[in-house]
Amino acid sequence: THLYEEHANLLPDDHWVWADSAYPLELWCIPPFKKPHNGQLTKDQRTFNYHLSKIRVHVEHTFAVLKGQFQSLRELHINIQTEKDLQVAVHWIQCCLTLHNMIICVMMVCHRM
Description:
This protein is mainly alpha-helical. The protein has helices spanning about 1-10, 45-70, 70-75, 85-110; strands at about 15-20, 30. The longest helix has 30 residues, at about 85-110.
């Protein structure tokens, strides 16, 4: 993917991403442990994979909720080739998150009345 090929240009030095098992382990990329061909994962590796899976599922559910609430996210097809492209996508998503949180606050106030 473009992220894999251009991670040094797209991710700041102190950032990394969680990935699925299709990605190799890199300093910037943390996938789950893969079962060795001739053995089993250790208990610590299984525990890590379990928690990583829970985080990934939670993030995927969050994206689904936001896409359900904001049509623009379902249609956000930005081909991220440059730092500016990345910033546009990040700001768009941040705006949707801000609106989402504002809606929650307004609904909480309305329910108290």
